[in-house]
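Anyone? Bumping this.
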Amino acid sequence: MIHDLAVIGGGVHGSTVALFAARGGMKVTLIERGPLCREASGVNAGTLTLQMTRVALIPYALRAHAMWASAREWLGHDVGVVVCDGLSLAFTEQEEELLSFRAGKRREAGAPISLVSGAEARRIEPGVSDTVRLAGYCKVDGFANAYLTGLAFRRALIDAGVALQENTPASGIVREDGGFAVQTSNGVVRARRIVLAGGVWIEPMLAWLGIALPIKTLINQLVVTERVRPVMRTVVGIANGLLSLKQYPHGTVVIGGGWQGIGDRERGGVELLPDRVIGNVRLACHAIPDLKAARVARAWAGLEAETADALPAAGPIPGIPDAYVCGSVHSGYTSGPYIARLLAERILGHETDLPLFPIDRLLGTATPSEARHD
Amino acid sequence: MTHDVIVLGAGPAGANAALAAAEAGLKVVLFEQQPAAGGQVWRAPLPGLRMPSSPEKDSGDALRARLAASAVEIRFGRTVWSVGQHFRVDAVGPGGNEHAEAPRLIAATGAHERVVPFPGWTLPGVIGLAAATVLLKSHGALPGTRVVVAGCGPLLAVVAAGILKAGGTVAAIADLAGPGDWLKALPALASQPRLLMRGAAWALKIGGARIPVHFRHGVRAADGGEAIEQVRLAPVDAAGGFSAGPEITLAADALCVGHGLVPGAEIPRLFRTAQTFDRRRGGFIPRLDACGRTSLNGLYACGDGVGIRGALVAEAAGRLAGLASAHDAGALSADAFAAAAGQARARIAQARAFSDAMAEMMALRPAQVAAIPPETVVCRCEDVTRADIEAAHADGARDLNQLKQFTRCGMGPCQGRFCGDVAGELLAAKVGSREAVGAFTARPPLRPVPLADLMGAFDYADIPIPAPAPL
Ligand SMILES: Cc1cc2nc3c(=O)[nH]c(=O)nc-3n(C[C@H](O)[C@H](O)[C@H](O)COP(=O)(O)OP(=O)(O)OC[C@H]3O[C@@H](n4cnc5c(N)ncnc54)[C@H](O)[C@@H]3O)c2cc1C
């Protein structure tokens, strides 16, 4: 039996490509090493914000935000999306400059961000500290419960008829007539087309095809508090992007921002650095002083992928017809569904509304060698 | 490196580990959350509270005196929240966050109580047997005016006798085990005459007060509006499931109930050392060599946190781990180590029959879990019922961590310490085995810490904010 499409890697990118390809009429299988969305896509901070999104991705993130906001309609299941205001704060003169510059660039790219005074920021978010001097204010912001992503996609993929293969690591790909043979722990899976959507593992996956694409692994630390009374109602960040903060309807507050812990592709997020946990928490409490009364319930580190230019790897794999890659999207939980959906459109042979991010730019001049037969 | 070895937990295991390592000349620091050493079993009364003498208090006092006279640097009142590579330990205490570093770490953080849920188990007035011993030993307080004591294992007698000694009323004792189970354990118990006598003294006290003891009975439900008003008991079979027979209804304003202990093996789990599932020992436990070495170089573990064995074994196993750390550090010659370790091992061997018999009595009874009604809450922090867990299974959850993501089971303040064992058992009944279902991934903090304590006083300018993310 040969599938029209095999997607390898069941994070938000792989799951979305599989879902839209199947809805477009293809016979799709999704091969995931563990359970769906248990890596970056299940452990991320769930912030759906434009104020941390790379400028080049703003048009994508705007469309993706609308997708998340209507998840019930296209995904069919709830991931606890809350759409709310977002603030990016500046506490010093230097941060004011940084914020004005960064917010300006994002606004030029289409993000509806305006600059407001500290007093105005406190009117929008009574929880913020009175030391705020300036804030970027964006009405298109919000967050989801990332840990529900796997459950929601699982139901949707099954409904769409995708052949889900969870707990099935792939270990290699062989090109053959009419497509590809994917080696998995469950035997060989054949498909006419493949999408490599392995998050930080797209580097080893591309290597199966003889393509060398270096992917940097970020080890993002996150802290979540116990349930506390409402202390904030918006998504709060700071000018340089090293804070993301919001309170969920059930009362927990998630503190993130990309402070780096210890880990790697082989071992995952191994541990958090206590000094950086403390730094991140100080920053959070500096922004929202009432947070001090909360207790830390849990903290962890997850892996995020980054290419050399920190822009996505999303498009056809050069030199290998019918093979695609999808991932390494900065703030990829926010933008992932839209970018992955674009790729699905492309695979289905449709025009895409916005361009993809082919990886040719990252590969230098060497042409890919023949696929390895191992 | 600030020390040669760091010991976490000052119960019988950790305290003896620290003493053994310090006697061998190592520079030792001992972290403990409580204000005094002794652990659960030899817990000290709160400062200022005078408690009558008892064998447990006397053992605890002796240990506290030995520690005080030793070279061990003791840090009480410290909540250890992070343990990391090269064995950096971070704790919050009276002076805010502090840390120590050493090439060796001994984890002796004990066990926590298992309560197999039944309708009403979350009502005010229902407390664990272990929690009741803390009330009695540390606070000198009674759990209620008319108390039902239920569950299994030796803590039943400890708590009932403790309530009587403190002047309280025990309405009844309900023991999942039958007299036959105790008789079967008798030869093993007789191997520890001192403890057998202790048990006999408890039995006499309970017998003398004419407390009804309902063998082979479990709690069907605790009923009440705002708080517990009555307890319904029902007969159970050898596997712990309910069997035919009349219910017994008892008016009570407190129920002390516990079904054994679960090893708190979070530290070895955080370091991802090899582990196995051992039902008799209480759940997932780290794999250790004969001296308490885990599969990670420099990490040792001992006491009930590595499998339920009781205080006697904990003392000797702690000593063994302390000696091993000293030997590995080059502070103890092979001969001296062999001699001292031999003695400790002999004591473990002596205690084995007794500790095995006790552990067996406290092991989880699968039929008891199977009898939990669908609408009963299993994860009390997040209000997740048995039916929710089974619905998550139907939705594809095949391991505990996936269950956690689907339902929030284990995401609350206790981080699954209290529900993990039972939730794992429920899921395993569907999936096939506890090994397949696994354990909740251990995460920092080891105990919840207030943000205010964690961050202390600071200047915004001193926060080491990393370079901005790319624009
Ligand atoms: C801690 C943290 C916080 C973050 N916070 C935010 C945020 O607030 N907002 C935001 O927008 N973004 C955030 N991100 C980024 C976002 O999570 C990621 O960009 C996004 O989830 C990546 O999705 P993915 O599908 O590419 O990768 P992943 O979710 O990692 O999926 C890749 C999948 O491939 C599977 N796989 C790997 N190897 C194999 C193999 N050999 N065979 C089969 N399957 C394999 C993996 O198991 C995994 O499930 C955060 C990231 C982290 C780590």
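Late reply, but here is one note on the structure posted above: The longest helix of chain A spans residues 93-108.
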